C-alpha cells in the first residue's frame, strides 16, 4: 500500500486567522464565526473530505509590536476579535462521527488540574476525538494580561511546559485504573477506591495531589500536537508530540526538520512510527489551470500585506516599521517566537532585506507551501513534497472559508483517493487510531507518559 | 397579572450531584453524563417546560473530610467522577432557542482575562443565554490542586472575587464600544481602533491591561447568579448578583434571607426589581397522592445517608464520623463553607444533635424545600412558599434524572400555567430578558458594573 497522506484543516475562532484582509472577500464566511452553524457546517465538510482533524489555533493577546501599537491589528481584524477555541468543539462533535478536533492551549496560562479535566471532558463527549496543540505562548501582551510583568523567558516556558505535561500525564494515565468504575448497583459501589490513585505531584512549578476528577476517557491523553522550531521547541516536540507541525516552504529545510524531529525523538526512546509530521499547505484549485490562477489573483487582491507584516512583527519581536526596505534582517534567537524569523531568513541561503521579507509576506500562502492548479497538478505537487521531505501530511490553510476547503474536498480529495494515497472511508476509531492505526486509542508504550511514569511511583519525574 | 414563578433546573456534570446513591435506581440516567445526547435531551425537556435555565453546579476537588479520607466519596460516586460543566453548554444551545445556561466557575481558580473570553464566547454562541454562578471555592482539596498550601482564607476569597468581577466587568462592558465592529469592506476597516479600549486594570490581586479579545455579545456581562449565606457571601451577592440562590427549608428563615439580600442590595444603590431570589426545591409528583408517596418511598430506599453525611462534612469542615450521635453540633463560622452548617443548625430554634442532623441528611430533598403530591398539591405548596418568603422562583433538584423533571414538566407545569403564574411561551430574548423582561439584554444602569465603572476611567475601582 502506498504511503497515506494525512490532512488537517487549520483554522481559528476569529474572522481573520492567517488570511489577512480576506474577510472583505464576498465569498468569505468567517465573519459568521460567532454562529454555531458556521462550525457545524465546516465540520461536516471536513468529515465529507475524510480529514483527520480540524486544528484550531489560538492567541491570548494582541499584536502590538508593529508601530508599537495595537491599532493596526484591530483595524485589520488580525486575530482580534477572537473567541475561545474549545467551546465550538462540542457542537462539531455532535454533527460528526469521525472527525477529530485539535485545540490550542497554553501551558503558560492554564492550570494543569482544571485543564486536564477539560480535556478529559472533551475526550468523553467526542468519544476519543480530541487532540491538544501544546503551545507555550510568546506574546508580551498575553503575559501582561495574566499579571506577569514580562513574558516568561523562553527556556523557562519550555521547562514549565514539560512539567505541565508531566502533571497532565499523571492525571490522565496514572490516576484511574481502567477498571476503577464499577457501577455495582447492589453494593452502592460506583468506583472502587483502591483503583483511584492520588498522583502527589510536587515539582518546581506545580503541586497537584489529585486524584483526577474525570474517569478514564477513550484516549486518556489527547493526541498531542506541537509545532516547535526553536531548539527547545523541537526538544519539547520530540519528547512529547505525536503530530508535529512543521512550517516553511523550502522542501530541503522541511526535510531537515522532519529528520531532526525523528532523530531527537529516538534519543528519547520513541519509535519513528509513533510520530507524524505535517507541513503547512495552501491549495487553490480549479477545474483548469486558468481557473485556479484566476482565483489566486482574485484572492491576492484582498490580501493585506500590512496585516501579514504586523503579524510577523509580533511573532518575531521585530517591528518592521522601524527598518528601511534596504536593511538586512539577520536572524537571532529572541525571547519571542522565532518561527517566522527562521522561516524567512534561515530558510534562505542568505539573509534577506526587509523589503524582500515584506514582499514575501504580502503573498497568499506566505507561511508554508502553496499549490495552485488543477486537482491533478495539486496532487502531483503534494506527492512530490511528501517524497522530498518525508512529511506524513499537511495542515491545510484556508484563503476564504469554507470556499477553499470546499474546492479541495470536491476536486482534490477524489484525485488523492483515485491515486490510493488517501482514505476513502474512516475506520471507526479514536483520533489517535485514525492517525496511527492500531487497536487502541491509547498512547503507545514508548511515549514518556507511559515509559517514564508509573502508577504508584508518584514522585517520578520525566527525565532523560 | 399575578406574580410569575421562575424556574431553573439544578444539575451537575457527574453521575451524582445531590441525589446520593440514586445512580443505582433503574430509571436514573445520570450515568450517561458523558454522552452529548444526555444533555441535549435534558435541554429539550427543559425548554418544553419553559424553564429559565439549566443551572450547572461544579466542584474542583474531592470530599475528603469525612473519615479524613476520599474513599467514601469515591465509593459512593459523590460528585466524583465529575466533568467540566462548560463544555456541555454549546450542544444544549444548539438544540434549543430560549433556554438559558448558568455555569458555575470559581473566582479563586480562574484567570479573569481568559475566563472573560470564555464567557463572551458562550454568550455569542448561545445568542445571549449565558449566566455565571459566581463561587469562591471552599474545599481544601481544591486549593492543594492549584498549588496552594491551604484554601484561601474566607474573607480574602471574597475580596478576590470582588476584584475578579471588577476586571470582568471592565472587559465585558467597557472595553469595546457597541459600534466598534465596522466591517467596512472597502476600507479594510474591520474594527474602529478608537472604539476598543484598554482597561488598564491594576489591582491588589489582578493586573489586566486588556483590551478584551471578544467583541460585544448580546448580554455583554452574563446574567450573574450567586448563592451567598455567610456575611461576606451575602454582601457579594447583594452587590453583584442578579439571581440569588437561597438554601434552607424553613419559610421564615428563607424570608429573612430574601429580605436581607434586597436590603443590602439597596445599600449598593441597586433596585429591588433587578434582583430575583430562588429557593431550592425538590418536587416528587404523581397523578395521585399515593403515586407521589410511592415514588418518594421508592427513591428513599436508594438514597445514601452516608453520601449526604460525607458531603455535609466536606462542606462544613465538621467530620461527622468523629462525633457521637448524642453530641450537639454548634454552628461556628469557619474558613470552610458554612451554608450547610447554617442550614441545619442556625435554621433551627436550637442546636441539633449529630444524630438528628444525620437523620435529616438521610432524607431526600435535604438541602431545601420538598413538595410531594399531586400537581395541584405541589402548585399550592409552591404558591404558598412564594407568598410566605418573597422568593421569585426555585432551582429544581432532580431525584432521578431526567425522570424527576419529566414528571414536573408533564404534570406540574400545565397546572402552574393554568393558574396564570407561569409562562406559556417564551418571549424571543436573551436570558436576562427572560428573567427580568425589558427591551435589552444588558445589565441595568444601577448595577455596579455600569454605575461604578466608566469607560476611560480605567483606574476606577468599585467602592461603596
What can you tell me about this protein's structure?
Two copies of one chain form a homodimer. Helix content of chain A is 38%, strand content 15%. With 464 residues, chain A is α/β, with parallel strands linked by helices. The first copy, chain A, has one domain: TIM Barrel (Alpha-Beta Barrel). In chain A, the strands form four sheets. Chain A has an eight-stranded parallel β-barrel with strand order 1-2-3-4-9-10-11-15, surrounded by six helices. A two-stranded antiparallel sheet of chain A has the order 5-6. The first copy, chain A, has a two-stranded antiparallel sheet with strand order 7-8. In chain A, a hairpin with a 4-residue loop joins strand 7 and strand 8. In chain A, helix 6 runs parallel beside helix 7 and helix 13 packs across helix 14. About 4% of the residues of chain A have low confidence. At the A-B interface, helix 2, helix 3, helix 4, helix 5 and strand 6 of A face helix 2, helix 3, helix 4, helix 5 and strand 6 of B. Chains A, B: It comes from Paenibacillus roseus. Chains A, B: This is LLM class flavin-dependent oxidoreductase. Chains A, B: Keywords: Flavoprotein, FMN, Monooxygenase, Oxidoreductase.
Nearest-integer average pLDDT of chain A: 91
Separate helix tally of chain A: 16
Beta percentage of chain A is 5-15%
The number of domains of chain A is: 1
What is the chains' assembly state? homodimer
| Secondary structural class of chain A | alpha/beta
**CATH domain class name of chain A:** Alpha Beta
What is the CATH architecture term of chain A?
Alpha-Beta Barrel
Largest interface: A-B, 72 and 72 residues
Number of strands of chain A: 15
Measured between the Cα atoms of the first and last residue of chain A, the distance is 36 Å
Q: Provide the helix percentage of chain A.
A: 25-40%
**Any idea what the radius of gyration of chain A is?**
22 Å
Amino acid at each position: 500500500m502506498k504511503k497515506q497522506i494525512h490532512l488537517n484543516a487549520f483554522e481559528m475562532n476569529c474572522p481573520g486567522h492567517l488570511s489577512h484582509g480576506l474577510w472583505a472577500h464576498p465569498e468569505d464566511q468567517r465573519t459568521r464565526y460567532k454562529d454555531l452553524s458556521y462550525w457545524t457546517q465546516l465540520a461536516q465538510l471536513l468529515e465529507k473530505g475524510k480529514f483527520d482533524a480540524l486544528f484550531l489555533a489560538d492567541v491570548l493577546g494582541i499584536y502590538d509590536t508593529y508601530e508599537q501599537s495595537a491599532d493596526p491589528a484591530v483595524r485589520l481584524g488580525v486575530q482580534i476579535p477572537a473567541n475561545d477555541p474549545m467551546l465550538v468543539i462540542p457542537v462539531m462533535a455532535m454533527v460528526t462521527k469521525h472527525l477529530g478536533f485539535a485545540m490550542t492551549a497554553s501551558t503558560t496560562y492554564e492550570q494543569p488540574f482544571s485543564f486536564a479535566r477539560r480535556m478529559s471532558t472533551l475526550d468523553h463527549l467526542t468519544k476519543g476525538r480530541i487532540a491538544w496543540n501544546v503551545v507555550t505562548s510568546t506574546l508580551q501582551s498575553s503575559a501582561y494580561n495574566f499579571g506577569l510583568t514580562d513574558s516568561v523567558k523562553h527556556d523557562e516556558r519550555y521547562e514549565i511546559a514539560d512539567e505541565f505535561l508531566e502533571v497532565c500525564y499523571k492525571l490522565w494515565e496514572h490516576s484511574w485504573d481502567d477498571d476503577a468504575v464499577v457501577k455495582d448497583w447492589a453494593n452502592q459501589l460506583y468506583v472502587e477506591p483502591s483503583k483511584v490513585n492520588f498522583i502527589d505531584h510536587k515539582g518546581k512549578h506545580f503541586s497537584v495531589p489529585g486524584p483526577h476528577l474525570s474517569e478514564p476517557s477513550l484516549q486518556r491523553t489527547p493526541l498531542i500536537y506541537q509545532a516547535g522550531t526553536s531548539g527547545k521547541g523541537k526538544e519539547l516536540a520530540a519528547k512529547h508530540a505525536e503530530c508535529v507541525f512543521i512550517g516553511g516552504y523550502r522542501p530541503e529545510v522541511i526535510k531537515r526538520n522532519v529528520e531532526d524531529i525523528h532523530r531527537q525523538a529516538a534519543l528519547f526512546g520513541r519509535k519513528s512510527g509513533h510520530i507524524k509530521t505535517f507541513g503547512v499547505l495552501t491549495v487553490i484549485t480549479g477545474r483548469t489551470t486558468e481557473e485556479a490562477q484566476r482565483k489566486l489573483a482574485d484572492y491576492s487582491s484582498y490580501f493585506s500585506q500590512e496585516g501579514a507584516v504586523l503579524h510577523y512583527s509580533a511573532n518575531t519581536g521585530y517591528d518592521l516599521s522601524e527598518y528601511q526596505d534596504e536593511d538586512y534582517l539577520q536572524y537571532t534567537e529572541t525571547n519571542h517566537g522565532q518561527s517566522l524569523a527562521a522561516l524567512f531568513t534561515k530558510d534562505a541561503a542568505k539573509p534577506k532585506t526587509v523589503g524582500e521579507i515584506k514582499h514575501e509576506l504580502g503573498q497568499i500562502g506566505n507561511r508554508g507551501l502553496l499549490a495552485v492548479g488543477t486537482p491533478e497538478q495539486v496532487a502531483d505537487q503534494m506527492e512530490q513534497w511528501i517524497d522530498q521531505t518525508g512529511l506524513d501530511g499537511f495542515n491545510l490553510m484556508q484563503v476564504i472559508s469554507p470556499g477553499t476547503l470546499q474546492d479541495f474536498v470536491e476536486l482534490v480529495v477524489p484525485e488523492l483517493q483515485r491515486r490510493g494515497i488517501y482514505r476513502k472511508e474512516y475506520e471507526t476509531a479514536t483520533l489517535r487510531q485514525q492517525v496511527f492505526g492500531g487497536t487502541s486509542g491509547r498512547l503507545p508504550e514508548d511515549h514518556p507518559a507511559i515509559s517514564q511514569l508509573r502508577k504508584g511511583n508518584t514522585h517520578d519525574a520525566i527525565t532523560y
